[in-house]
Design goal:
Order of helices and strands: EEEHEEHEHHHHEHEHEEH
Shape: globular
Radius of gyration: 17 Å
Number of strands: 10
Strand content: 25-35%
Structural class: alpha/beta
Strand order of the largest sheet: 6-7-8-3-9-10
Number of helices: 9
Helix content: 25-40%
Length: about 230
């Protein structure tokens, strides 16, 4: 596990004939939280999906824990220890919260037990018998995150996990991200909510038109605010 969890070089991605990513270059160090910033349509979600092979076609290099994954099918990539929490969450409505947790097979050793998950997400412990459709939006988001933690993933790809949630739930998710980083997880977040992402990230990449246009560390954030206004309108 000495290799970088993620290194992307010259990544191109297509949906049908649409060329969406145009040579993305970036990397993530072990134990970091890295946030992809950008306007809607900049290519941030497509970048996460391209890492897992969930696009029509891709080329370039995607190294995950030192293993070249560009030609691997999605199920093989997941077994490299990658967990994806999509924006739409993907909760099975007819299953209980606990059944949603138990359904996916383990991807790697070291996944959290149910007891550990319920300790981290007490709401899920209380609602373990509730059907997916009966969970609040915040509880569904917690369940989507808990599901990939149970599978043993150590590289977490999180797409807009704060979107549409009440401020108290967003604050709870922020504490969870901080706790996971302290436990050595590596996290790549796509976030529109800059106030949520800014205190959590160790580094930022800004995307525009399917490319990385700037990368900087959290310590440079104040010096980069004028540029952020230009690209994000924050």
């Amino acid at each position: 596990m000495s290799a970088q969890p993620l290194r992307i070089a010259d990544l191109h991605a297509y949906y049908g004939e649409s060329h969406v990513l145009h040579g993305v270059h970036c990397h993530v160090e072990r134990g970091e939280v890295v946030t992809l910033l950008g306007r809607n349509g900049a290519g941030r979600t497509t970048t996460l999906r391209a890492l897992l092979g969930l696009v029509g076609r891709r080329s370039g290099s995607v190294l995950i824990n030192g293993v070249e994954a560009i030609a691997l099918p999605t199920h093989r990539i997941a077994r490299l220890g990658v967990g994806y929490c999509p924006e739409e969450r993907g909760i099975y409505a007819s299953l209980s919260a606990e059944e949603n947790l138990l359904l996916p097979p383990p991807l790697a050793e070291g996944g959290m037990s149910l007891d550990q998950i319920y300790e981290m997400f007490p709401n899920l412990g209380e609602r373990r018998k509730s059907q997916g459709t009966h969970l609040s939006g915040g509880e569904q988001q917690m369940l989507a995150l808990a599901r990939i933690l149970r599978g043993g993933a150590r590289l977490l790809l999180l797409d807009e996990i704060s979107e549409g949630l009440a401020p108290v739930i967003v604050q709870s998710l922020a504490r969870t991200i901080q706790r996971l980083r302290a436990q050595g997880y590596t996290i790549v977040m796509v976030e529109q909510n800059f106030r949520f992402a800014a205190p959590l990230a160790d580094r930022f990449y800004i995307m525009e038109h399917g490319q990385i246009v700037e990368g900087f560390a959290a310590g440079e954030l104040q010096a980069k605010m004028a540029m952020l206004h230009k690209f994000l309108g924050v």
